[in-house]
Specification:
Elements lengths: L30 H12 L12 H6 L2 H18 L15 H12 L12 H13 L24
Length: 156
Amino acid sequence: MLVDGELDAVIGPRPPHGFPGPHVQRLFSNFREVEADYFARTGIFPIMHTIVIRRDVLERDAWVARSLYDAFLQAKRRATAELGDPVVLSTSLPWQIAEVEATRELMGDDFWPYGLEPNRHALETLIRYSGEQGLAERSVPVEALFVHSTLDDYRI
């Protein structure tokens, strides 16, 4: 539909059919610079994914939320642990170390934060925009989006 001119734009996890091509291009050719500028001005880097647990599962097995949250935290730690280590490159990208350094300089060490508090500003902005744009029928407190057991990072 993009190639045929039936759609003006699309947002998706992968480049669409026909990219790059005469009718299918990035909205911003300098997307890296535009995104970095937006983050520098707003402190928001759009959240990429969410985890949802069906209510009946949570009511039956309340431990699932915290266990799943902890598992994702551990997976993230493993995935990012050696990104900046020049001796143990996790990819064969030629400028990996420079990119990691530039990202950390702009966004800090935890550039994919999990949980409510590190994402509060982005989530509250999302809720506000959703209301303003008519995407949500009502605003909810950001805490209502999280299972109580995932609101902190302490262990008993």
